[in-house]
Design brief:
Layout (H helix, E strand, L loop, with lengths): L4 E3 L18 H7 L4 H12 L44 E6 L6 H14 L18 H12 L6 E5 L14 E5 H5 L10 H5 L11 E6 L2 E3 L16 E8 L9 H17 L7 E3 L4 E4 H10 L1 H8 L11 H11 L8 E5 L6 E6 L3 H13 L4 E6 L9 H13 L15 E2 L4 E2 L2 E2 L23 E7 L3 H16 L5 E7 L5 H8 L4 E5 L5 H11 L4 E5 L3 E3 L3 H12 L3 E7 L6 H8 L7 E2 L7 E5 H7 L10 H9 L6 E11 L6 H12 L13 H20 L5 H27 L5 H32 L13
Parallel strand pairs: 1-10, 2-3, 2-5, 3-4, 7-10, 11-12, 13-18, 16-17, 16-19, 17-18, 21-24
Antiparallel strand pairs: 5-9, 6-12, 7-8, 14-15, 19-23, 20-24, 21-23, 22-24
Length: about 775
């Protein structure tokens, strides 16, 4: 019997790179690139020595047909349209995915119990949570499917009862099917055995006779038609890669031994084939439901035994191997099907195994992004590496850039609502925090009436930075299944608000009529947000890709009512900026009485109990709020796992001085509520010592003695602060630069003190509000 054997040629520009482990500082490097996809672009330039075509940064929820963006909308009449060459016009084609979320706490607990019960049986020892790691691949695989194969009728997602939070299972196109529906009374449930689960694909209710089976890490890189998979007269193609099946049933991985077992079984049934049996390709595999049912009857005992294995076993039947042999070797199927051997790498196929070789794998991701093969698989083989391993971050960035448009299978983003006036909607006043329902306890797949997490971005004249800020927020929000984003345009005059509306239609924009204070802008945003956790992010900050995921984790781990992170600076920042931020981040996680408002996240209940930000303060509102939150149950915690980069730090001593003068205007806010404000105490001590230094200059001493005494007195508090911060952060840094910075800092605070004193005197004499109340925003 002759088997038609079509081979795709190798790609001349094969991808590759030098072996090596991820370099030190990789996590920081990914934090500091604007969109993590930029890392892919930079690797592309390193690998090919030229500038790649830039990928347009996209926002969550772009509308189809938006000017300037690629059209990823679905053609009209998509359902059942099998217009490919040679396709049967009367037959529908469905798609089937198998999926699991290994990060789900309930799943991990159940997996742990059954692994302990199984002991050394089968592959239980190797079936750790990392095998089931969910890095968000399914979202992008679905986007690729609906973009490049819009003729697919229905999509069936076969799971153990979970469902992705972002998946809209209410649409007619998508159906989530549980293992219990297809296993029935047979088999071992819950099953952690992909071989056993695949045995039951043909039993999915409502499944079309012809369907494509995808793992969630398989993607379409170009347009395909039904005729690329199914042939006239009822035949189909079988996609294999140019790798012989394993023969040794006693050595190798459990997967290799089960393939060898299936290979031996096929030889017993149909004899030795004229050409080598090859491994199935990691590509969309076409199946015929009725042929699968016949194969299940033919191998009933093998199907039942495999289904009884809760974990993979060496004597499992591997469906893809058995089905390919059945189509190409069984006498009743002879001559009806084509076997296609996919070269790797080639324009048709690419299998990329992620094993932690950062440089080579980022280059390979860049190559796939630049020229995607028609079929490609990005397989997570990183073992115990965390979900936020740099290679996985780069993978998600590459997929997000390749498939930026939300598919109809995803829940819609927050509607665009542009509000004008002092925080009022067209229909009435903005509700306060107490008016929101909490979305706690919502399980994946259930309807969510309020987002679990909301992001509030106060905006004032940050046009140069707000797009980068929101790109990073959107990307980080996708990691947790989405979040609502509220931008409060606090009277910007540089077109910042208009830029947000045009580039980010899925983001709610609240426009205030005139510039107020950061406190007021944050309170208005909190009132508009619908989540039970409020994340405040400044418009000139760029959050890390795992920012919101870490926020959720720290809240769960600590039970705090408010948490904050670390603020970093870009790698090209001047030494004075790097030194200042180096000494602001603590050496270890733990309770704190102050969190920078740029990276502050608060439980809504705690925010309401504390009364929100004090709108009477020009600045220092974050310190003042944290002082009140610290007194609530759970307190305030800072964590180095939550990181953001400050995009607009002061780069000169002049800007630094001006900024600290403005920040100092809120310096008395906390002492009115707490006596433990060390910065204010140190500023007052510095003022006293400066006065003594001035007195020393008039003392009847030698010029050298007077100068020495003045230098010691003026430098005492800054030097003590440098030492204290070095001990607190466990970083020495550049002591002389730090000393100059703190001299400038305390000088600025002295100016602030004089301004506050003058305002208080002037206000009292004119009957106006005293210093510390509402004033103009920093320029």
């Amino acid at each position: 019997m002759r088997i038609p054997d079509h081979r795709s040629g190798p790609d001349v520009g094969a991808h590759g790179g030098a072996d090596g482990h991820p370099p030190r500082g990789t996590q920081r490097a990914y934090l500091e690139c604007g969109d993590v996809a930029g890392a892919v672009g930079r690797a592309d330039r390193l690998a090919h020595g030229r500038r790649p075509v830039p990928a347009r940064a996209s926002a969550h929820g772009l509308a189809a047909g938006e000017p300037g963006d690629r059209d990823h909308g679905l053609p009209e009449g998509r359902s059942g349209d099998l217009s490919g060459p040679g396709a049967d016009e009367n037959a529908a084609v469905d798609a089937v995915y198998t999926w699991v979320d290994g990060g789900d706490a309930a799943f991990r607990a159940e997996l742990g119990r059954h692994r302990a019960a199984a002991g050394a049986a089968g592959d239980a020892a190797g079936a750790g949570p990392d095998r089931f790691r969910n890095s968000g691949e399914l979202r992008y695989s679905l986007r690729s499917l609906l973009l490049h194969a819009p003729w697919v009728r229905h999509i069936h997602v076969l799971t153990n009862g979970q469902a992705p939070a972002w998946l809209d299972a209410s649409t007619a196109m998508v159906r989530v099917v549980s293992h219990r529906e297809v296993f029935g009374e047979g088999g071992a449930l819950p099953s952690f055995n992909s071989n056993a689960i695949e045995m039951h694909l043909h039993r999915i209710p409502g499944l079309a006779r012809r369907f494509l089976y995808f793992n969630d890490d398989v993607f379409l890189g170009g347009r395909v038609e039904a005729g690329d998979f199914f042939l006239p007269g009822g035949g189909q193609r079988v996609f294999v890669q140019d790798t012989p099946l394993p023969h040794d049933r006693d050595t190798g991985s459990t997967r290799d031994r089960s393939c060898a077992y299936t290979h031996a079984l096929a030889t017993r049934l149909w004899g030795q084939p004229p050409s080598s049996r090859l491994l199935p390709a990691h590509a969309p595999q076409p199946y015929d439901r009725d042929r699968l049912a016949r194969l299940a009857m033919l191998l009933d005992g093998e199907f039942r035994r495999t289904a009884s294995h809760r974990f993979r076993a060496a004597d499992d039947l591997v469906l893809a191997v058995a089905y390919a042999s059945f189509l190409t070797e069984a006498p009743e199927e002879a001559g009806r099907h084509d076997r296609v051997v996919l070269g790797d790498p080639s324009p048709e196929y690419r299998l990329l195994m992620l094993r932690g070789n950062l440089i080579a794998e980022v280059r390979a991701l860049a190559a796939i992004h630049r020229a995607p093969p028609r079929f490609f698989c990005i397989n997570d083989d990183l073992g115990s590496a965390g979900r936020y391993h740099p290679v996985l971050i780069a993978m998600r960035a590459a997929l997000r850039s390749s498939f930026p448009r939300r598919s109809p299978a995803e829940r819609p983003p927050v509607a665009v609502r542009t509000l004008r006036g002092r925080g009022r909607t067209a229909g009435g006043a903005v509700p306060g925090p107490e008016g929101h329902r909490l979305a706690a306890g919502v399980r994946p797949g259930e309807a969510v009436t309020a987002p679990r997490l909301s992001v509030v971005v106060p905006l004032f004249n940050k046009r140069a930075f707000v797009a980068s800020c929101l790109d990073a927020i959107v990307a980080a929000a996708e990691e947790i299944g989405g979040a609502d984003i509220v931008v409060v345009d606090d009277g910007s005059t540089d077109g910042s608000g208009e830029l947000v509306r045009s580039r980010f239609p899925g983001v709610e924009v609240v426009s205030l009529e005139r510039s107020g204070t950061p406190a007021r802008a944050r309170n208005v945003g909190a009132a508009r947000a619908g989540g039970n956790v409020l994340c405040f992010v400044d418009a000139d900050c760029r959050v890390a890709p795992d920012y919101f995921a870490q926020v959720e984790r720290v809240f769960v781990a600590t039970g705090a009512c408010a948490i904050g992170g670390w603020v970093d600076v870009p790698p090209d920042a001047p030494a004075l900026v790097a030194e200042w931020h180096l000494r602001r981040n603590p050496a270890a996680d733990g309770p704190s009485r102050h969190v920078d408002g740029a990276v502050l996240s608060v439980r809504r209940t705690a925010f309401a109990a504390a009364g929100g930000f004090d709108e009477g303060l020009v600045t220092g509102e974050d310190s003042e709020l944290c002082a009140r939150l610290a007194a609530l149950p759970g307190g305030v915690v800072r964590s180095g796992r939550i990181r953001a980069a400050h995009l607009d730090p002061p780069t000169t001593f002049r800007r630094f001085f001006a900024g600290e003068v403005w920040h100092g205007l809120g310096m008395f806010a906390v002492p009115f509520r707490s006596s433990r404000d060390l910065a204010t105490t140190a500023t007052i001590a510095h003022a006293v010592l400066v006065a003594l230094a001035a007195a020393c200059l008039a003392a009847p001493l030698s010029l050298t003695a007077r100068a020495a005494a003045a230098v010691v007195l003026v430098g005492a508090v800054p030097a003590a602060t440098v030492v204290r911060r070095a001990v607190a952060t466990r970083r020495l840094g550049r002591p002389l630069t730090a000393l100059a910075l703190y001299e400038c800092y305390y000088a600025a605070r002295l100016v602030s003190m004089l301004v506050l004193a003058w305002r208080s005197i002037a206000g009292a004499s004119r009957g106006r509000p005293a210093a510390g109340e509402q004033g103009r925003r920093s320029p």
